[in-house]
Amino acid sequence: LDLLCISRGPSQKIKRCIRTRFFSPSLFSSTMTSNSPDIAQFKEYNELNNRIRDAIPSQLEKRLSKLSLPRIASCGSQSAGKSSILTQMTGIRFPRASGTCTRVPIELRLERSRTDDYSAKMRVKWCEEDVMEEKWTKAKDTVDNIGQILSDEICDSESLVMQVEIAIKAAQDAIMEVRPVNFSSSVITISASSPDLPNLTLVDLPGMVAYKASGENGHDVVENLYQPYLSDTSTVILAVLTGETDYENQPIWNEVNKHDPLHERTIGVITKADRIDPGGEKQWMDLISGDNIDMSLTHGWYVTKSLSQKDLESISQHDALLLEKRHFQSGVWKDFSKREKLGTENLRQKMTALLLERMKLSLPEVGIQVNEMLKEQKEILKGMGECIPESDEGKLSVLKEKIDILAQELHEQFGHLTSSQELSSETHYSKVKDLWAQYKKDIRSAGPEMTKSVVKEFKLWENVSPSAIGVAVRVPDNYTPDHVCLKLPDGTMIGSEEMLKFDEQESLMRLFRISSSQLSQGATFEENGSVVRIDPMFFVVEKPNNEYREKVKKVLRNAQSNYRIMIGERPSTLSFSLCDEFVKEWISPSHDLAQSLFETQQELVRRIVLGRFEQFTELKTASLQKMDEYLNQCQRGFTEYINMHHEAELKHKHTLNDHHFHDTKSKFNARNITDDDILQKVKNILENQNCTKEKCPRSLWELAKKDVSSEQNPFESDINDTIATVAAYVKCAHERFMESCCMISSKIFLEDFEMMVKKDLWIDVRKGRPLSLLFSEKPHIVNRRKTALASIVALEKIQAVLGGNILVTRIKQQ
Questions:
Q1: Has residue 678 got a pLDDT over 70?
Q2: What confidence score (pLDDT) does residue 15 get?
Q3: Mapping DSSP to helix (H, G, I), strand (E, B) and coil, where does residue 25 land?
Q4: DSSP 722
Q5: pLDDT confidence tier of residue 301, bands split at 50, 70 and 90
Q6: Element (H or E) spanning 192, and its range?
Q7: Which of 306, 300, 229, 292 has the alpha carbon at shortest distance from 264?
Q8: Beta strand residue intervals within 79-169, DSSP E
Q9: How far is C-alpha 203 from the geometric centre of its chain's CA atoms?
Q10: 307, 387, 740, 769: which could join 311 in a potential S-S bond, CB 3.0 to 4.6 Å?
């Protein structure tokens, strides 16, 4: 008879003659009517719930798990009687035998039809692991064929039950052929409609096992399979315990505690009540009555009498339920007070009522959740870029557009303010300016600066150098420091009438002469007796280092000893060689600038390209390769300019800014007369060795300064003039050299590089590479894009379901 049922095209007469002992058409009519308000309401909610679930492919269920879609999941140990109790409850026979029978989740959607309509459909929600296998295509075709046979062969209640059983078993076998595993998370979904079926939706999960087979731990595999179902807060857990075994030895209770610690969404059921050891009923009755506090459930425990395989083959379902009813009317169960907890029918009604309750609570929120998730998926898709056209013309257009956007971003990073750029954002140009500033500092340090007093910033008074002769502080332009004093810890007040201006400082600094021992004690600044903070940065002024002066002195003596020159004269080559010592030091910082500009800009390019072309591996690689070539070209060009300019500085000692040269030279000459020299002259004039600069009148100080200058011997003046000549020329020359190098680096690394990217990159990346290769994406990017697109499609389908549903409209109105 089974063979006739699965064959294609037997006569209606033959099919109607097939009888199934177990199914009873009038089974549910005595307890439920299609006119019942609750049943009608359940059907309405359940239909909407199922339509939403149908819109979600199985591979997206984890991704879209935020949706609150209620369901009932049956779970328990292997051979606990899960499938048997579901068969008694629904009339649909699940795979049953000794050992493990259910190896994949089976979702059963039952609906009572109002007309004489019998139908059943089957489909499989394939998991990602199965889809990736080579055998999946064949298995899919097999399952599709089984589903078609199922739809064609149903004509009445008897054929529906039989064909569903056959289809479930055949589909499960096909799924298990895909991979060499004992369990799969692919889901068999059966949708059946009949005037005799109850309104119920549930999922039967494989039983938990505790053995290892084929190198895998069966318990762990099933536990992982349970995870997405039991962890979903919208799932009602049907926890099945068998009365044959103590509940302490059944692992399902651990799963309940893990996923539903408050026991708010779990229904417990004890199967095989007729097989409980005599005298052992007490512990189960305590569980059902709620006396076992540790295992109490909000929705309680139920108990059923399961049918054996022999019973299913020999008696009808109606007779089976009658036997169950008689069992609970006799023996130890006869006087049990919780009658509403006994039997399959009471359990089914509770499950239906609880599922309806949860659907009423959850479904109104689905619309909000869908909108939020749809926005999220669109943002993910947007972040991966637009989909690439199929045609080469379209790809070329996209390539040009992407290169233009990249060039525009470089344009903004290179310091050109655009309407899309925030004024506060840090650009690459700001980093370049920092490199230029450091470069200028390095060049300026390569000069005869040791002939003047050294100014150093300091933070701690105790770190002052022993060579310190005072402390300097910045003076704001709008501040008159006539009455500002430096106050020492012992109360000594030190004034200042000297103003200093150093090359590195743009503003004047006031010098307070004080010994290093006094400085190390700390000090404060006071104005008219009140403490004032002029500037948080203080500068220690140290004595000049005379090593360079001694070097020049030695060179001049050597020249007078070896060349025929008059006193006060010196060969021109002497000044040239002294200047060259400093000019030669410019080449290393300049080359370092070229390298720093290259590395900084390379980092910028990589960041932009990786952000723009992340999904296109070949385009990303080609772009980085070509832009590295452009940067190398820029570095070579800038280095060539540095070398050329530096060579010119070494060969040609001249400056067109004569006024600046002579002004600078006179300033350096003046610096060679120290305050100590002037002070000694003042002491000699006054014949007072205790005189200090602070007590000396300004007019006398200036007079003594002129006298000291006039008293210098010719050779000392010659030394001073040589040092001043070198210092003045180096200052003029290094300013010219620095500014030109910075200007040329800006043109080469910024302007020329941007032009190469804009004009040449879209051509260069295509050389030897077809457009299809440039726009090929990494597999994981392709999968992410497909998943995001599939999620959007599924969510938009759900939106369509919700938009045209009368129930949703009614909920919104309420």
A1: yes
A2: 35
A3: coil
A4: H
A5: very high
A6: strand 187-194
A7: 300
A8: 106-112, 119-125
A9: 36
A10: 307
User: Which position has the token pair 């991966």?
Assistant: 384
Sequence-ordered list of residues with C-beta below 8 angstroms from that of 224, at least 6 positions apart, any chain: none
pLDDT digits (tens, 9 = 90+) for 486-527: 666 776 766 665 555 544 444 556 666 666 566 555 666 565
Nearest to 549, CA basis, from 681, 713, 726: 726
The answer to whether 778 touches 18, Cβ cutoff 8 Å, is no
Closest CA to 209 of 223, 194, 230, 189: 223
Q: What is the pLDDT of residue 267?
A: 94
Give the mean pLDDT of 114-139. Answer: 86
For the CA atoms of 229, 87, 99, 342, what is the dihedral angle to 10 degrees? Answer: 90
Please check whether residue 209 is in contact with residue 129, taking contact to mean a CB–CB distance below 8 angstroms.
Answer: no
* Cα separations in angstroms, 683 against 95, 514, 539, 711: 119, 19, 29, 16
Total Cβ atoms within 10 A of residue 390: 9
Residue 494: predicted pLDDT? 66
Looking at every residue in the chain, the average pLDDT score rounds to 76
SS3 state of residue 27: coil
Token output for 699: 């007019």
Output the six-digit token pair for 156.
């009445």
Instruction: Pick left, alpha or beta for residue 19 (phi over 0 → left; psi -120 to 50 → alpha; otherwise beta).
Output: beta
Half-sphere exposure of 330 (CA within 13 A, CB side): 8
List the structure tokens of 753. Answer: 């590089």
Cα separations in angstroms, 384 against 378, 380, 622, 785: 10, 7, 19, 7
The answer to whether 86 and 200 are in contact (CB under 8 A) is no
| pLDDT for residue 452 | 47
CA 345 to chain centre: 52
Q: Are 692 and 701 in contact (CB under 8 A)?
A: no
- In this prediction, what percent of the chain has a pLDDT beyond 70? 71
Tokens at 249, concatenated: 């030895």
Q: Measured between alpha carbons, how far is 278 from 338 in angstroms, rounded to an integer?
A: 20
What is the pLDDT averaged over residues 658-668? 60
Q: What is the pLDDT of residue 756?
A: 94
**What is the residue-wise DSSP string for 416-476?**
---TTS-TTS--HHHHHHHHHHHHHHHHHHSSSGGGS-EEEEES-GGG--TTEEEEEEE--
Closest CA to 112 of 23, 201, 34: 34
Helix, strand, coil percentages, rounded to 5, for the chain: 55, 10, 30
Q: Say if CB 444 and CB 503 are below 8 A apart.
A: yes
Kind of pairing between the strands at 484-487 and 524-527: antiparallel
212 vs 310 pLDDT, higher one: 310
- The span from the CA of 431 to the CA of 749, in Å, is 13
Residue 259 has pLDDT above 70, yes or no: yes
Helix (H, G, I), strand (E, B) or coil at 216: strand
Q: Where are the beta strands (DSSP E) in 501-644?
A: 509-513, 524-527, 530-531, 538-542
What is the residue type of 339?
R
CB 453 within 8 A of CB 515: no
Calculate the alpha carbon distances from 701 to 179, 491, 785 in Å. Answer: 102, 28, 83
Q: Which are the contacts of 320, defined by CB distance < 8 A and separation ≥ 6?
A: 22, 88, 307, 311, 312
Distance of alpha carbon 77 from alpha carbon 93, whole angstroms: 19
Match 């309940």 to its residue by tokens. Answer: 256
CA distances from 539 to 453, 502, 511, 673 (A): 12, 11, 9, 22
Q: How many CB atoms lie within 10 A of CB 619?
A: 24
Give percent of the chain with pLDDT exceeding 90.
17
Task: Report residue 775 as tokens.
Answer: 């726009």
Cβ atoms < 10 Å from Cβ of 621: 15
